[in-house]
Amino acid sequence: MLGRLGCQPAHSHVPSPIVTSTVPDSTHLVSEGAAAEAAAEPSAPVPIPLLEPADGVPPVLDDPRDLARATERLAAGTGPIAFDAERASGYRYSQRAYLVQIRRQGAGTILIDPVALPDLTSLQEVVGPTEWVLHAASQDLPCLAELGLHPTSLFDTELAGRLLGYERVGLGAMVERVLGFALEKGHSAADWSTRPLPEPWLRYAALDVELLVELRDRLEAELVERDKIDFARQEFAAIAAAPPREPRAEPWRRTSGIHRARTRRQLAAVRAMWQARDKVARTRDLAPGRVLPDGAIMDAVLKAPADIAALTRLPVFSGPKIRRSAQTWMEALRSAAELPESQLPSTAGPGGDGLPPQNRWAERDPVAAARLARVRAALNTIATAQGMPVENLLEPALARRVTWTPPASRDTASVTAALVAGGARSWQVELTATAVATALVDPPATGTAPSAPKAEPAEPAANGTTADSTAPGASAATGGAAEGRAGGRPETDAGGAPRRATPRRATRPRRSPTQPAASDEPSAS
Predict the structure, then answer these.
(1) C-alpha span between 168 and 145 (Å, rounded)
(2) Are 176 and 168 spatial neighbours (Cβ–Cβ below 8 Å)?
(3) How many Å apart are CA 13 and CA 143, to the nearest integer?
(4) Which of 459, 464, 462 is nearest to 90 (CA)?
(5) Strand partners for 5
(6) Using CA atoms, how far apart are residues 389 and 162, in angstroms rounded to an integer?
(7) N or C: which end of the chain has fewer CB within 10 A?
(8) Residues of the chain with pLDDT under 50
(9) What is the per-residue pLDDT for 350?
(10) What is the DSSP letter of 481?
């Protein structure tokens, strides 16, 4: 077959001649500057477009008998099993899987329609004990768990790339860098709830697992060479063992533009409209942003229309589809206006981790703000020396908790205990405990108040939005959700409309798996 590589012959795995001539040495770290320099050099390898799966596009299984035969093929296969799942983030309210892709040596690629086959527990006996290979695993594991699939061990190629210092950790970027192939990028933001799924989408989906095991093998070799394989194994084990993420206490506070609400009454209006929209979105199984964009919520809250006529003169609300539901939004605004003061939400809001917002630290506790600056500086130094993002070295939420309320005895042993209790893995504790303990010791007061600490990079949540996480392994998804697998996986803002983030999973982020986020674009729904 010549279709897969264009002019290149087909292969069951990466062919030796192509690897020799096109795949860069994976021991070299990727950086934007280095990539640009390499591309400018005449000798830089040209990535080979990956056009077709080695065995063609497999049929989508939607019959229990076909699933049983596929299970037998997987059982007869060898080696790790590559997994992927496609959701409809930005289109549907739920974060369920609408396509599951599986590949194993000797079994080929298997595509499963989980709408027709919502119970895949029959697969669990075969795939459960085997190592799974996923890219940004924490984004797909929740929807796979809904189908009865749970890994006992896994290898996360996105997280491996972050631990190795790769600046671009989307699946497409890593396959191109490590293996020399260019994945298709055309259907990352598709509505995978569509039925029937178009053949080009299925080809794209099959290619997502085509080279995952080869990528895993190359990354594992590099982790071993750079003495980071134990770091990776601990992280992978933490992801596999992590419990389901708890729902946010006040998810409405993630409405885009909510910072413009200055009063408790305005915040109550945001909450009321968010809750009304959420009810409609859940009932209709639509992404909230397709019911009503965040921008429209904030416009209505800030303009405070007196009646439906005034509301429907606002942009978005004047559209025919949203205009029909104007009564719902007006009732939400009126209910907030009638609340007694005792029921209005706080302007500060929960910090997610029980701490004040970062920009209030210097005001609330200047000494703690100074500690945080020292802790961050110490962690940044270690992360730079280790060649990895600081959020993978130690979760920022945990660093803040230990800084705001340090152990009574600020020595290495006490800090070690606090970090372990907060979910830090042993490799993280070994690298950071002494430096954090030193940074927590307050110098004599000088009377000079420190400036507010700078905000650190946000972490991806389980559903792909960015937020602090305390779940083991949660920071692993940051890069993938931010970057996407092959150049842009669908991402959503706080209401659920699609947006392109930098590559996949990563960084698909991690987001409460049940709640897509919103766009400020009006919807045609």
Answers:
(1) 28
(2) no
(3) 28
(4) 464
(5) 8
(6) 7
(7) N
(8) 1-41, 458-525
(9) 63
(10) H
